[in-house]
């Protein structure tokens, strides 16, 4: 949907008139990210991260396609071909570091994007579908990142592949057969490496397709905003271009500074040194952990150390997947009528002093050694994580008395709806 | 972008020190920002294109050394130089005579045999085994192969005939078989370095 006051696209010359008639791509762009998309005027920098995530996806696809021109997915030469990229290929070192750090920054961006969704309850009606597609994109990203990490065929690649496919071995009855089928063997080898490469190349394009659905779904109700109050009138909005292209452009510049700081000055800071040791099926590294962005879920996996009706291993796997799948139910678990955390005092307390410390702890614990006191702390954090989503959130959102909301976005910004500086289509109003 | 277009300064309307028409300070910021982003983007394109050029390990294979001490008159060797065939032949006296008897002015790519060999080794002919038409490997380097109508090389793909000095005489190829840079050090032939 577009608001009735949205600017209309008018082709200005012969070429654009021709295109508008035959294939109205310029119109699509104008209405999606141009002046034809009215956006709430009060978006904060937290609303930059969707565009940044899109940028990261393009960055990963471009650098990835280029790296695939030099990489060989074969157990005997994969590690050497990565070193060949680092040493021989023109600019290969930069392209590989850009891709590896690009994955980390993609996850930083996406975690902040999800955090924004949690705090401002962006998942609430009418935006449930945007949220659901977003969770699907996150799952696809996790699969893509995991398979990409296997490709250099170093020690962490190999043992990561073994451990993650081992998760499926926990499933009763069919588990072991499933694991062998996934790997195409009894341990990771050529068959696994080849299919991981194939899927690692495919999934980003599936993600790109889901991103189109995500944006399509977004444009039906339009963007949310920090007050959570829906757009009521033209003075509540600004055209996406030039206002938010400029704001997103500035955010992109800040993002690129941080990103290239890593690419050029500490390219291996977010990786594991063990992955520069070629894969050795006979020796496991002392500390086997996934990439940092999987730490919270890895901590949940390792928190289950005791059998309770089901084997501990299965509990860990179920809990790890449930930790993400629970996000699918958020639109219905959060029962409050108000969206934004700014107007929900109780929700806000549990968010900042419950969920955030819990996530921070899981992030830390996922990278720690599997020993006490880390295991016990993981168990407490895991318990709280599920308690938050399944018990605290539904109860808090039911009993909470929200703060009064502003009448409109304009009132929230200007203090009074009456002083509204109306949009360009409106008649001047005497105040 | 701003809807305001640049006009001379004297038309600028200034209210409270801020130009509302004509060239504004904001125009400068917009042009500077978009230019910086554009140049930055173009700079990033360079590595993406450069990565497809030969890598360091390919460039490291840029010379080939051959021992030509045992190469007898009338014999040829086929070697590999930069992943492509190269023909090395010790020409016989009749072949040299035949090459020198040709009227250079009639050739499609006029060159004398002397211009295609080293002064110290006028009987050693080193040419790339790559037809100048579309890159097939001509026949004639191996005993018993078709040497074409002029006793040198014959390309079976589209019928180019090269003479004893490997110059194009008949067929679609535009140029003589290319003579790579090479030098002879004792009995060692170094292809790839003049």
From TrEMBL, chain A:
InterPro entries: Cyt_b/b6_C, Cyt_b/b6_C_sf, Cyt_b/b6_N, Cytb/b6-like_sf, Cytochrome_b, Cytochrome_b_C_euk/bac, Cytochrome_b_N_euk/bac, Di-haem_cyt_TM. The chain crosses the membrane at residues 45-73, 93-118, 130-151, 163-184, 196-217, 250-270, 312-330, 350-368, 374-396. A ubiquinone binds at residue 219. One of its GO terms (cellular component) is respiratory chain complex III. Residues 230-407 form the Cytochrome b/b6 C-terminal region profile domain. Keywords: Electron transport, Heme, Iron, Membrane, Metal-binding, Respiratory chain, Transmembrane, Transmembrane helix, Transport. Residues 15-227 form the Cytochrome b/b6 N-terminal region profile domain. Heme b b566 binds at residues 113, 214. CDD domains: cytochrome_b_C, Cytochrome_b_N. It is found in: Membrane. Its cofactor is heme b; heme. Binds 2 heme groups non-covalently. GO terms for biological process: respiratory electron transport chain. Component of the ubiquinol-cytochrome c reductase complex (complex III or cytochrome b-c1 complex), which is a respiratory chain that generates an electrochemical potential coupled to ATP synthesis. Belongs to the cytochrome b family. The main subunits of complex b-c1 are: cytochrome b, cytochrome c1 and the Rieske protein. This is Cytochrome b. It comes from Aurantiacibacter luteus.
From TrEMBL, chain B:
It is a single-pass membrane protein. It is an enzyme of class 7 (translocase). Belongs to the Rieske iron-sulfur protein family. It catalyses: a quinol + 2 Fe(III)-[cytochrome c](out) = a quinone + 2 Fe(II)-[cytochrome c](out) + 2 H(+)(out). Signal peptide: none annotated. This is Ubiquinol-cytochrome c reductase iron-sulfur subunit. GO terms for cellular component: plasma membrane. Residues 122-191 form the Rieske domain. Its cofactor is [2Fe-2S] cluster.
């Amino acid at each position: 949907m577009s608001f009735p006051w949205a600017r209309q696209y008018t082709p200005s010359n012969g070429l654009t008139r021709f295109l508008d008639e035959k294939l109205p791509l310029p119109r699509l762009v104008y209405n999606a990210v141009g002046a034809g998309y009215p956006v709430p005027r009060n978006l904060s920098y937290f609303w930059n991260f969707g565009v940044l995530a899109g940028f990261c996806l393009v960055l990963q696809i471009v650098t990835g396609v280029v790296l695939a021109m030099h990489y060989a997915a074969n157990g005997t030469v994969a590690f050497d071909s990565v070193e060949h990229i680092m040493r021989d290929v023109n600019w290969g070192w930069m392209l590989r570091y850009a891709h590896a750090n690009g994955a980390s920054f993609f996850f930083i961006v996406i975690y902040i994007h999800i955090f924004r969704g949690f705090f401002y309850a962006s998942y609430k009606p009418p935006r449930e579908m945007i949220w659901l597609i977003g969770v699907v994109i996150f799952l696809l990203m996790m699969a893509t990142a995991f398979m990409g990490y296997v490709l250099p065929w170093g020690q962490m690649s190999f043992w990561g592949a073994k451990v993650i496919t081992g998760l499926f071995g926990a499933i009763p009855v069919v588990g072991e057969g499933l694991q062998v089928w996934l790997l195409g063997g009894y341990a990771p080898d050529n068959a696994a490496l080849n299919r991981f490469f194939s899927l690692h190349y495919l999934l980003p394009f599936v993600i790109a397709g889901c991103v189109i659905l995500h944006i399509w779904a977004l444009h039906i109700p339009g963007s949310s905003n920090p007050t959570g109050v829906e757009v009521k009138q033209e003075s509540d909005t600004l055209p996406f271009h030039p206002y938010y292209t400029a704001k997103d452009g500035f955010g992109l510049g800040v993002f690129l500074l941080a990103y290239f700081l890593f690419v050029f000055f500490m390219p291996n800071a977010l990786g594991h040194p063990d992955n520069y040791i070629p894969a050795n099926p006979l020796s496991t590294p002392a500390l086997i952990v996934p990439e940092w962005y999987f730490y919270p879920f890895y901590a949940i996996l390792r928190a289950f150390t005791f059998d309770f009706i089901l084997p501990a291993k299965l509990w860990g796997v179920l809990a790890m997947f449930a930790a993400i799948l629970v996000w699918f139910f958020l639109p219905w678990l959060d029962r409050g009528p108000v969206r934004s955390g700014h107007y929900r005092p109780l929700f806000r307390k549990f968010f900042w002093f419950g969920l955030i410390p819990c996530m921070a702890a899981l992030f830390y614990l996922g990278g720690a050694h599997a020993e006490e006191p880390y295991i016990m702390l993981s168990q407490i954090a895991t318990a709280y994580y599920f308690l938050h989503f399944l018990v605290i959130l539904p109860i808090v959102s039911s009993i909470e008395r929200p703060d009064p909301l502003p009448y409109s976005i304009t009132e929230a910004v200007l203090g009074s709806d009456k002083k509204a500086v109306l949009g360009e289509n409106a008649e001047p109003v005497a105040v | 972008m701003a809807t305001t277009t640049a006009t001379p300064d004297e038309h600028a309307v200034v209210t409270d020190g801020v130009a509302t028409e004509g060239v504004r300070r904001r125009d400068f910021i917009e042009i500077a920002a978009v230019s910086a982003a554009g140049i930055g983007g173009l700079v990033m394109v360079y590595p993406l294109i450069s990565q497809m050029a030969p890598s360091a390990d390919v460039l490291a294979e840029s010379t080939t050394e051959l021992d030509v001490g045992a190469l007898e008159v009338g014999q040829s060797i086929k070697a590999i130089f930069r992943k492509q065939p190269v023909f090395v032949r010790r020409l016989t006296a009749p072949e040299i005579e035949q090459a020198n008897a040709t009227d250079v002015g009639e050739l499609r790519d006029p060159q004398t045999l002397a211009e295609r060999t080293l002064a110290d080794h006028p009987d050693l002919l080193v040419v790339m085994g790559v037809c100048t038409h579309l890159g097939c490997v001509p026949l004639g380097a191996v005993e018993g192969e078709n040497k074409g109508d002029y006793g040198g090389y014959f390309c079976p793909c589209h019928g180019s005939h090269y003479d004893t000095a490997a110059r194009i005489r008949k067929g679609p190829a535009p140029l003589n078989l290319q003579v790579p840079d090479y030098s002879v050090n004792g009995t060692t032939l170094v292809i790839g370095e003049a």
